[in-house]
Amino acid sequence: MRQPTLVILAAGMGSRFGGLKQIMAVDDFGHAIIDFSLFDAYRAGFRRVAFIIKKEIEADFKAAVGHRAEKYFDVKYVFQSTDKLPAGYSLPEGRVKPWGTGHAVLCCRGIVDGPFAVINADDFYGPAAYQALYDFLAADRPDNEHAMVAYLLRNTVTENGYVSRGICQVEDGCLTDVVERVHIEKRGADAVFTEDGEHWTVLSGDVPVSMNCWAFGPAMLDELYARFPKWLDENLPVNPLKAEYFLPFVANACIQDGSAVVKVLPCHEQWYGMTYKEDMQSVSEALRRMRDQGVYPEKLLD
User: Fold this and answer.
1) 218, 143 contact by CB (below 8 A)
2) Alpha-carbon distances of 296 from 35, 37, 86, 199, rounded to whole Å
3) What region, left, alpha or beta, does residue 67 occupy, with left being phi > 0 and alpha being psi -120 to 50 degrees?
4) Does 299 map to a domain?
5) Distance between the two ends of the chain, CA-based, in angstroms?
6) How many percent of the chain have pLDDT more than 90?
7) Cα–Cα dist 248/212, whole Å
8) CB contact at 8 A, 148 and 216
9) Which of 252, 264, 260, 247 is nearest to 212 (CA)?
10) How far apart are CA 236 and CA 229, in angstroms?
11) Is the pLDDT of residue 16 over 50?
12) Considering all CA atoms of the chain, what is the largest pairwise distance in Å, rounded to the nearest integer?
C-alpha cells in the first residue's frame, strides 16, 4: 500500500474574510475547521501531512495547529512565497498577492514524495471526502492517474456574497473540462454567474464543482513545475500583480493534452467554508449539529 500525504493549503491571505481564518476557532472547544479536517483525514487512514503556509505565520500556525498535528502525523511545513519563481524570472514590482493554488502545490516539489491529496485549510469537506481521497491514493495506480472529489454546486454556495467555483464536465466517470467561474451567487436551490457584472447566466444546483479537493499521483508535481514558465510568459505581461496559477487550470491542461486522467469521485455532503465573516455562524451551527449527531466527539486530535 502506498502512503499518501495530505497537502493542506493554508497560505491564503483571507482577503475577503478579513483575517487569518486558517486558525480561527469555529466551536466552543477552540477547534478551527482545519482541526476537523485533520480528524477526518486521520480516521480515513492518512498519516502524513504537509502544511503550505506563509513564513510570516509560521509561529502562530505551529502554536495553533502544527504542534498538535505532530502528535498524530508525520508533518512537513512548506513555505509559499511570491519570490519562489523559476530561474530567469523576477517578482514584478508591487506584487504582494500569492501566485495561486498551482504555485502553492508546486512549492511541495522535493518535499512531498509519492501520491498526495490537496485540500483548502479553511474548507469543511466532510468525512466521506477524506475516505474517498485516501482509498483512491492508497491503491496501486499509474503516476499520472488523478482524481477530484466533486460536490454539487448547491452544497457549496453561501448566502453572504459571491464565490468562485470550478464548473466541471464529466464523462464516463472522468473529468473532461473545468471552467472557472469567479463570480457565482446563490439563487434558491440554483445559482447564477456573471463575467461582466451585468449579464447573468443560470447554473443548476446539480452541476458538479471542484472545491480544490484533489487526489494526485506523483506526476502532478512535475507537471506543475514544467508548465509554470509558460504560464508566466503568457500572464505576466497581461496581469503582473494579480494573475494566479490555479491548480484546476493545470489539471485541465493535462486532461486536454492527454498527459493525465482525472477520475471524478462524487460527494453529496454539504461543504462549509468561511469566505466571509458572516459565514462563521452557519459553520459553527452546522458543526454543533454534527457533534450532537455523533459525527464528531467534543475533543478531536487534541
Assistant:
1) yes
2) 11, 11, 43, 43
3) alpha
4) no
5) 28
6) 79
7) 8
8) no
9) 247
10) 10
11) no
12) 55
Q: 114 lies in a domain?
A: yes
In a domain, 300, yes or no: no
Separation of alpha carbons 251 and 216, rounded Å = 10
Query: Which pLDDT tens digit goes with each residue over 144-191?
Result: 999 999 999 999 998 888 998 989 999 999 999 988 898 999 999 999
Residue with cell 500583480: 241
Give tens-digit pLDDT for 200-225: 999 999 999 999 999 999 999 999 99
Q: How far apart are CA 154 and CA 204, in angstroms?
A: 8
Residues 74, 219, 127: CA angle, nearest 5 degrees: 50
**Domain hosting residue 99, numbered range:** 5-292
Residue 302 falls inside a structural domain? no
Number of domains in the chain: 1
CA pair distance 215, 67, nearest whole angstrom: 25
Given pLDDT bands bounded at 50, 70 and 90, which one contains residue 22?
A: low
Q: With helix as H, strand as E and coil as C, how does 96-152 read?
A: CCCCCHHHHHHCCECCECCCEEEEECCEECCHHHHHHHHHHHHCCCCCCEEEEEEEE
Supply the pLDDT for residue 61: 86
Q: Determine the Cα angle at 245 with ends 34 and 65, to 5°.
A: 15
* 247: helix, strand or coil: helix
Domain CATH for 185: 3.90.550.10
- What are the cell numbers at 293? 449527531
| Distance, CA of 125 to CA of 128 (rounded, Å) | 8
**Residue 49 parent element (H or E):** strand 48-53
